[in-house]
């Protein structure tokens, strides 16, 4: 908790910087968290329909020279006491420049969607769907993770995009998770009690006040 706001916290392992910490706030209950495979995510981001190709197609040296890269360095530095917000992304498919609306569903409707609109073998008259990824927020922290050597990391997306994002870039041993499941809603009295207990634990272990 930070003040009376509650968060879900994620530890992300990187090859170059050890463990780093990220968060998603309870206020984002309408969104979902998807753990992505870094290589598959980058391949999809470099696809022809994805956003910000001028950044996606850079190498690590190019990412390090991004004018905001130092901000991500500063953001990840405090570690657990001030986790970095998850990147906010969008995902879907396009066919010949037209967004494919057939499979942008999640939750209990996913199986029905795949039955109603089964995947078909592309033909000359029916080209293959092209996946895309775009960013609402968090490009710099994402390229920082890629430079640091993270092989997997969580992002947030709209609940309607969660199933499709996980389908083409998600890690094999994970499933999309609504933020509302990670940080369930609670009443004000319980919130006050949790906040008090949390800060007592911090003080008892000599840890800094969270999100100070």
Question: Quick recap of the structure?
Answer:
With 212 residues, the chain is α+β, with helices and mostly antiparallel strands. Helix content is 35%, strand content 25%. 26% of the residues are buried.
Task: Give an overview of the whole structure.
The chain has 212 residues and is of the alpha+beta class. Helix content is 35%, strand content 25%. Strands 3, 5, 6, 7, 8 and 9 form a six-stranded mixed beta sheet that branches. A three-stranded mixed beta sheet has the order 1-2-4. β1 and β2 form a beta hairpin. The longest helix is centred in the C-terminal third of the chain and has 17 residues, at 188-204. The chain starts with 6 loop residues before the first strand and ends in an 8-residue tail after the last helix.
Poorly predicted runs of 5 or more residues: 101-118
- Strand portion, in percent? 25-35%
| Rg (C-alpha, Å) | 19 Å
Largest sheet: 6 strands, mixed
| Structural classification | alpha+beta
Total of domains: 1
InterPro entries: PFIN
Core attributes:
212 residues; 9 strands; alpha+beta; PFIN; 25% strand
Write the topology of this structure.
Elements: E1 7-14, E2 18-25, E3 31-37, H1 38-45, H2 53-56, H3 60-64, H4 69-76, E4 84-85, E5 88-95, E6 98-100, H5 110-116, E7 130-137, H6 139-148, E8 152-158, H7 159-169, E9 177-178, H8 179-182, H9 188-204
Parallel strand pairs: 2-4, 5-8
Antiparallel strand pairs: 1-2, 3-8, 3-9, 5-6, 5-7
